[in-house]
Amino acid sequence: MARVPAVVPAEHTSDHVLVVPRPPGGDAPEGHPLPGLAAAWFDDVGWLSPPSAAAPSRAGGGARFHGVRAVTRPAAGVLRLGDEHRATGPFPLDAAAAAALGCAHPADAWALGRADGALDARGGRPAAYDDRDGIARAFAAALPVGEELRLVRWAVAVARRTSGMLLADGRQVLRPDPAASVDLVVWPARPVPAGELLEVVRSVVATSTLEAAPGGEAGHRVLARTPYDGDLVVTHERAGGPPRALAAEPWPDGAPATVHRLAWLPQDPYELQVSDPSGLHVIARDRARALLARVASLLHGRAGGAVVDDAGFVLTARDLESRRADPSPGARAWV
User: Origin, by domain of life (predicted)?
Assistant: First the structure.
């Protein structure tokens, strides 16, 4: 295994280390996306001690040197993640340090571990060693369980959302493919009737049809079949409570009563569960991802509300636009 450069202080090197590319304005603690991403998965997220800028220190060995400049080194904060864990950081990585990890831009590292400083108890060996996120491979000796497993899954989801990476136990590299996130959920501010839903989906895939929900469930769905890329399914169903990321949204008439779940059903569903799917699957996935993003954008434009991805993170209009960009030739073959 290749040596992973140390990116956090020595006392955190055995923690899980989440590396998140730095967003514009991310130099300020309030500009960093991690607290918001944590709130999508954990209750009671908050700073136990917020990051702060330390007093400037002198670079160059002393004031007698010409060209001396002040260097501000931020002091890491501690962010509570649920009842048992915390994220310590950010620890800034400049372009060179980020490049050593394979990141194209400057990034921040966060050390994830138990709030009490103890080690999490682990379970047994995984029954299989291939999964979409690579978690079984990273923890081949003993899988995380309980709250630690949720922490690891959240960190992988954040890495996928931000094009970052996770160093499991500080050394096993997990770099999830952002394009593997395909399915979406639209939480509309108003109900979308069946006829209007069909109209929206048909504007993207002309052969779409309206069907009753399978299994006698309440609601309905629009099915869009493609010759080579599998099926796109938009299901209209009664909503439960909104996800954590939307719990504080000011819905004008209360939380939505219905939701629209946008899903891709590939020709070989097994490939959804592996970390290295075939090239044909990836091509079909990219096209389906773009089409579902177009449907979500149209629904959101008509009915308002919010769009979340398959990890429960809220997507912006810019996020959807990025997904709609054609990733490969022929991405609009079935439009």
Answer: Bacteria
Distance between CA atoms of residues 102 and 175, nearest Å: 10
Q: What does the radius of gyration of the chain's CA atoms come to, in whole angstroms?
A: 22
**Residue 193 C-alpha from the chain's centroid:** 30
Looking at the structure, tell me whether residues 134 and 156 fall in a common domain: yes
Q: What is the pLDDT of residues 273-305, one digit of tens each?
A: 998 999 999 999 999 999 999 999 999 999 999
Determine the Cα–Cα distance for residues 7 and 19; give it in Å rounded to an integer: 9
Residue 244 · residue 225 · CB < 8 Å: no
Output the DSSP codes for 4-36. PPP-S-GGGTTSEEEEEEPPTTTTSGGG-SHHH
Residues 275 and 224 in one domain: yes
| Amino acid, res. 113 | G
Q: What is the pTM of this model?
A: 0.88
Query: For residue range 266-279, what is the model confidence (pLDDT) as tens digits?
Result: 999 999 999 899 99
Residues 6+ apart with CB under 8 A from 61: none
Q: Which two tokens stand for residue 2?
A: 């290749």
Which run of H or of E encompasses 121?
none
The answer to whether 160 and 180 are in contact (CB under 8 A) is yes
Q: 173: part of which helix (H) or strand (E)?
A: strand 172-174
Burial of 96 (0-12, 13-18, 19+ CB in 10 A): exposed
Distance between CA atoms of residues 306 and 312, nearest Å: 11
- 333 within a domain of the structure (yes/no): no
Helices 194-202 and 279-303: crossing angle in degrees, nearest 10, is 130
Distance CA(87)–CA(15), nearest Å, equals: 10
The domain that holds 268 is classified in CATH as: 3.30.1400
Calculate the CA 230 to chain-centre distance.
24
Strands (E), 116-228: 165-168, 172-174, 184-187, 209-212, 220-225
Q: How many CB atoms lie within 10 A of CB 80?
A: 20
